[in-house]
Amino acid sequence: MLPQAINQGLKWAAVVFDGNTFKRYYLNLILQVANVYGLPLKFFNSKEDAYKWAESLNLK
User: Fold this and answer.
1) CA distance 55 to 34
2) Whole-angstrom Cα distance, residue 52 to residue 34?
3) Which H or E run contains 50?
4) Which of 2, 3, 21, 55, by CA, is between 20 and 30 Å from 39?
5) Element (H, E) at 26
């Protein structure tokens, strides 16, 4: 699914979550796949931090 999203134009991704250890395990699996495809992906504890990061990317 991630390769298809990248082929459709996905340039980066941000995930906002509560820091739960079990969720982090699954998110790290997704991060590994994102790294294979060179997709910038980061985890955040707040939407505000995710928005700041997204704005700093300056991708076109």
Assistant:
1) 19
2) 20
3) helix 47-57
4) 21
5) helix 21-36
Cα–Cα distance for residue pair 15/23, rounded to 1 Å: 11
Structure tokens at 24: 């982090």
Distance CA 24, CA 38 (A): 20
Task: Scan for tokens 């991060």, then name that residue.
Answer: 31
Please name each of the domains of the chain with its CATH number: 2-59 (3.40.970.30)
**Closest listed residue to residue 46, CA positions, set 11, 6, 9, 15:** 15
Please report, in angstroms and rounded to a whole number, the separation of the first and last CA atoms in the chain.
22
Model confidence pLDDT, tens digit, residues 25-49 = 999 999 999 999 999 999 999 999 9
Confirm whether pTM is higher than 0.70.
yes
